[in-house]
Amino acid sequence: MSKTILLIEDNAAMRDNIQEILELSEYKVFTAVNGKLGVELAKREKPDLIICDITMPELDGYGVLHILGKSDETAGIPFVFLTAKAEKADFRKGMTLGADDYLTKPFDDVELLDVVEIRLKKASLIKKEFEKTAKGFDEFIDNVKESQEISSFTNDRSLRTHKKKESVFSEGNYPTSLYLVNKGKVKTFKTNEAGKELITGIHKEGDFLGYVPLLENCAFGESAEVLEDAEIYVIPKQDFFALVYNNKEVSRKFIQLLSNNLSEREDRLLKLAYNSVRKRVAEALVQLHDRYQTTTGSKTPIPISREDLAGIVGTATESVIRTLGDFKEEKLIEIQKGDISILNLEKLKGLKN
Question: What is the pTM of this model?
């Protein structure tokens, strides 16, 4: 079955030329002459890829991406911008909104087809279904790495054997890893002041443990103990964060694995992951503001690169850029020539708590 592509371009000659090239390569192409029609087509047809011009009347490309990114049905569609501009500000704004790639006009047939093939391949790798086992998780990681959507992955995960009644982790300790039950059974429980256990869950092969404390950056609220001889996959915290924060589609797929595809739990974890980044970026901005301000209530600009800010926060540069974009829309900060000025310090302080 041929892949479907939505092309949103107001220039008729450019639109016809791109459509012809794509159809000769056996893609099915839908076209829209403006952003509003493009949004309607995207929601109705749910294409495999969207190619969209930036500068258009009625609704520009940024507006199209923003609207589609708010819908669960269209947020995961790979999105490629067409632009006649090559300024850094255009690239940064597109990255903030979640664009996957750019084509700068003029481009040739080979450039167009290369971008399309690469983005479709990456999307198909991540959309595969994987078993919830150590083997399935390894396959998921291999596919994500092949798609080149995550970096700085340690590959330090290990498979540990546990005997009955051995502890996996204890209430009150801070997590350093994510756990995946590969074989056997594990119980989670809380202990009251009298020493009595309250079992909170029985976990079998394919169940992940310990991800909520990692996302909330807090101590375990329960303990885990092996009920029968078990094999448990141990995934380093650094790798967990790489999967959650580096790429929106990788994050969504990984959270589906964590949550057994239960929509309510998946939504909660996505919000938890997103809120965690917001809190950490807010905290970093407050700390930097305290260091850079010269007078009380001043708007002293913070001259820090997005890469350095990502290093402070401990997440991907793209996640920091998206979060700064949200803060700018919410009038919490302003950005001029890359420097950040705090507009609402009190609200930022509230976000970090």
Answer: 0.60
